[in-house]
Amino acid sequence: MKTLFISCICLCMSIQVWAQCSEGMSEGDNLISNSDFCKGNQDFESDYQFTRESGGEALLLGGRYATVTNPQYAMGLYPACRDHSSNGGVMLVFNGSESPNENAWSQTVKELKTNTEYVFSFWTAPLLRYSPAELEVYIDEVSVGKGFKLDSSLCEWRKYTVTWNSGNNTQAKLAIRNINMECISAHFALDDISFSACVPSDLKHQLSQAKAGQVFQLKNIYFETAKYVLKPESYTELDVLLEFMWQKPNVEIEIAGHTDNVGSQTNNQILSENRAKAVADYLEEKGIKPYRFTARGYGEDMPVDKNNTEEGRQNNRRVEFKIVKI
Q1: How far apart are CA 303 and CA 123, in angstroms?
Q2: In a domain, 226, yes or no
Q3: Residues 222 and 76 in one domain
Q4: pTM to 2 decimals?
């Protein structure tokens, strides 16, 4: 019978490191392939050993990782928890290596813009209380930002973010390492990795490079709480979308309404549908033919952030549109 040995007990405070694009800029498209691991063990590299063992003993040995929908599938000692965003999707889980120089995850990103600011982020959660990981980002083998030590809040997803300027580089190898050697076998999960260029945040600039399949958020439209009547200050942003559709007569879009999880699921579904329809009605009133857009509500089913903070709930309350045809 195999036994898990933990060599030391570490108690630590969580230090979240946040970074963001400069004022007037926002994050562009995510350049990471298989960023949410829905394709499993593909499109990235690891110095750790991938394992498919079942029965809750896959990660008894250090320096291993697995792709799972529940950490307990990889080791019975782990708590049962869901991935960061999709409630049933895939995450990576790790039993940390004893070497601080081994990459838990890495991927080379190409076709970067020179002299451009990029934001690299990921979500992580501790899986055992007495062996917290300390994670650090490396870009082209150079440490970027400060180490991020997880605390003992099991399955509590936290975001780590750093910024990096590409200089003359047109590609970069991104890596995440566990650098905490005080505790052997640091156990942690990773999910939703992102690497994006900082681009001008105004909608007009973003639409100048629009492609089919892209999703754009209408960040400057406003409704009363729990209502769906557009406030007049929303018209400036909507007129940018209107101008884009006038200039691109072949464009067709899907307008999508989303809510947080406050209130009943039924009411949130109805609210999201009505807010999407309010935007659609504005476009039609201004002369856009109805066949060029659809309006759908997704309620609380597609969050982009956690709902346990006001900031997270605000991020989840949104109206977006997707370029279906261009």
Answers
A1: 15
A2: yes
A3: no
A4: 0.66
